[in-house]
Specification:
134 residues; mainly alpha
Amino acid sequence: MILQSLAGLPAFLVYFCTGLVAIVAYLFVYTRITAHNEFQLIRDNDPAAAIALGLSLLGFVAPLVSAIAHSANVLDCLIWAMIGLLVQIVVFFLVKVPVPNLSARIAAGELAPAIWLGLSSLAAGLLNAACMIY
């Protein structure tokens, strides 16, 4: 009985680890695209940076969850994760159009630009996840 329950454990571990690797890759790439240093700002207790990065992470994880749930295999999942990352990068640059000094304002601790970026990232991620129809 217990062995039957654990039959899916290898697949779980593969996809869970794939998801973790994709998240680390996302954070590595995304934090180098932005002009502000999110992790240093978060270490310095800047809530604006935490809000912007945290919501953008959710904006990436939403399509990643969809990819894990619907992909045919791990490679397919990773391809869709890359698409999710690209969408988030595009959103970052689009959000900067009406707020050209976005990174400087987030680095200064301003919440409105951080919320604008974060919620835009989340909205794009949810739309991205919904569009992943195989």
